[in-house]
Design goal:
It contains 16 helices and no strands. The radius of gyration is 21 Å and the shape is globular. The protein has one domain.
């Protein structure tokens, strides 16, 4: 029964560390959620959306698509989906147009929370903002030009008449409050589970084997093997969880700022690969493109970015990658 004290000690440390990470996330999520809720109630998001209308038109999208993206930027994928359905865009757009809009939404969404998490890990807020914002626009523009040139996916979207909406932007404050409590509870469960799995994988040596297998590809990209497992978590489950683990790792170990920066660059463009891609398919986006195009963009752009940072002056690279007074 010698293993019982070890299990007890493991559990205590796990719960203590999970609560600490969870509280760090709550400090970000709660004020941001309240602020976004207030913006929704004052129709500020709709007004901001009108400012982005010229951008939407330049990407071959109807002007209303700008409100979808702005809502996605400030809230989350579901907020953008609600706007998409409430504006009836599914009845007036082609598959190509929805796929281009999906690329915008997939690369750049939930900025207040996700960029704050990156900042907590030591990355300047503006660096990650411009990285994701500009890549969302440029990758969507390239996709738009390609689909237009080859006349691909020009057929109209056909959505089921009974398509269920993921909530209602006009929910009462009480409904919003209980939805938020449910979301926060689920976040804690996922954080606890992730940290437990990560520790078990480290203890069994799986992390070392997994890191060695990915070392050639990640070395080609410029990502250090010390952040590979966390990067994979972020890419598959999302920045909220990958970022939480990264914050914990930077607290416990001296990770190089460039390694953390490159990991967030990859996670920022390509995360929640399965869930978010499936959500975009429910809007009518082409499944092959939403699953494959974003990862390819992420890998290629990071490859170029790493080489570019290698030739930049060290002080400039450090200013871009590392937040002061971390």
């Amino acid at each position: 029964m010698k293993f019982l004290p070890s299990i007890s000690s493991f559990s205590r440390e796990l719960i203590k560390d999970s609560i600490r990470v969870y509280l760090d996330l709550l400090k970000i999520m709660v004020p941001v959620s309240v602020g976004i809720r207030l913006l929704q109630q004052t129709n500020a998001i709709e007004r901001i959306g009108h400012w982005f209308a010229p951008l939407a038109i330049s990407l071959g999208l109807p002007s209303g698509a700008s409100m979808v993206w702005v809502n996605t930027l400030l809230t989350n994928m579901y907020g953008g989906m609600i706007t998409f359905h409430s504006l009836g865009l599914g009845t007036s757009m082609s598959v190509a147009q929805v796929t281009v809009l999906a690329q915008l939404m997939l690369v750049a969404h939930t900025f207040p929370i996700e960029l704050s998490i990156a900042r907590k890990a030591g990355i300047p807020f503006l660096s990650m903002f411009f990285w994701r914002f500009l890549l969302a626009i440029s990758s969507a523009w390239l996709l738009y030009r390609t689909l237009t040139f080859f006349q691909l996916l020009q057929e109209p979207v056909r959505l089921p008449d009974v398509m269920a909406l993921p909530g209602n932007m006009n929910d009462s404050w009480s409904a919003w409050f209980f939805n938020e409590l449910h979301r926060y509870a689920m976040v804690f469960v996922v954080v606890l589970a992730l940290m437990a799995v990560m520790r078990l994988l480290k203890a069994t040596g799986f992390i070392d084997v997994f890191s060695r297998s990915l070392r050639p590809v990640m070395r080609w990209l410029g990502i250090h093997e010390s952040v590979i497992p966390i990067t994979v978590v972020g890419m598959t489950l999302g920045i909220l969880y990958g970022g939480a683990l990264m914050i914990e790792e930077t607290r416990k170990h001296q990770l190089a700022p460039k390694d953390v920066f490159y990991a967030f660059c990859l996670m920022g463009i390509c995360h929640s690969i399965i869930e978010d891609s499936l959500l975009m398919m429910t809007l009518g986006a082409n499944g092959y493109i939403v699953f494959l195009y974003r990862p390819v963009c992420a890998l290629l752009t990071l490859f170029v970015a790493v080489r570019l940072f290698n030739v930049l002056p060290e002080r400039l690279s450090q200013w871009i990658m590392q937040r002061k007074n971390k």
